[in-house]
Amino acid sequence: MLGALLSALHVLALGIGLGAVFARGRGLRGVAAGRMELVKTVLFADALWGIAAGLWLLTGLLRAFGGVEKSTGFYLFNVFFWIKMALFAAVFALEVVPMTTFLGWRSAIKRGAPPDTRTISKLIRVNDAETAIVVIIPFVAAAMARGLWLIP
User: Fold this and answer.
1) Which residues are registered as beta bridge partners of 78?
2) Is-contact 130 21, C-beta < 8 A?
3) Do the Cβ atoms of 46 and 102 come closer than 8 Å?
4) pLDDT in tens, 65-109
C-alpha cells in the first residue's frame, strides 16, 4: 500500500511540476512584455515548482532506497535510473539562477520596490530548458521501471 501511495505522489508531483514550470514560463514571457502584474503569478508558479521538486525528491528517495517497492539494486544497476538522476540534477543546476533571482524579487516586493527584471530573457531560456527536461523524464522513468538496460 505504501508503494502505491509513493508512486501516486511521485506522479502527482510530475503534474504539479510540469504545470508550474509551464505557467512560470508563460508568466515570465508576460513580464518580459511589460505586464508587471504577472510577477506575482510567476512567483506563485515558482512556489508550486519548488513544492513539486521537494515531493519528487522525497518520494523518489523513499521509492529507490526505502525498500518499499523494487530493491535498491534494481535502481542502482539500471542505466535509465542514472539518466533520470542526471536529468534531475540538470534541472536542479539550472534552477539556481531562477531560485536566487526570485528570492530577490520576493525581497524587493516586501520592501515595496519593483523586482529587477533585467535578466528576464535568461530566465525564460532556463525555464524553457527545464520544461523540456521535465517532459523527457517520464519517458526515461518508463524505461527504467521496465528494467530496460540493466547493468550486468
Assistant:
1) 150
2) yes
3) yes
4) 998 888 999 899 999 999 999 999 999 999 999 999 999 999 999
